[in-house]
Amino acid sequence: MSTSYQHTVFLNLPVASLADSIAFYTALGFVQNHNFSSPAAAQMSLPSTPTSPTSGPEAHTGVFKLMLLTHDFYRTFLPPGHSIPDPKKVAQQILCISRESREAVDEFLKAVEENGGKRDVRPESEMDRVMKAQGFYGGNAMDPDGHLIECVFMPSEMYAGKE
């Protein structure tokens, strides 16, 4: 068995406009992998670190990828009888991305707003208050299609050595 294999998580999202979604997620730091993109789909890689290259093969070494799929293409993956829910009305998942600092979280949320998304789409919850008291920092948002996104900074002392 090869020790160089790395597990990868792909989140497939149905999108109304592939071009708009590519632009939106690029503005949030994702990098399009053109080798795995087509007129109906775009693979977007989240680089491993804030200092990772944003072009070339090294830009795609992170373990998390988005697959942005046009509605017609997304439907080809669904079992009979299933449909695409409207993410502005039904939440199936929440994409949560960590950042290296409070400032990086703020920059991320600003980029959401500047690129067609919305931020602060829900009121602060009790869990938000508990996490804030523990040193976490974050915010919530929605992409132009209505998919929910959270961005958080977790100080390393909150989790280092506690796994």
UniProtKB/TrEMBL annotation:
InterPro entries: Glyas_Bleomycin-R_OHBP_Dase, Glyas_Fos-R_dOase_dom. Residues 11-150 form the Glyoxalase/fosfomycin resistance/dioxygenase domain. It comes from the Eukaryota. It holds the Pfam family Glyoxalase. PANTHER family: BLR2408 PROTEIN, BLR2520 PROTEIN. This is Glyoxalase/fosfomycin resistance/dioxygenase domain-containing protein. It comes from Cyphellophora attinorum.
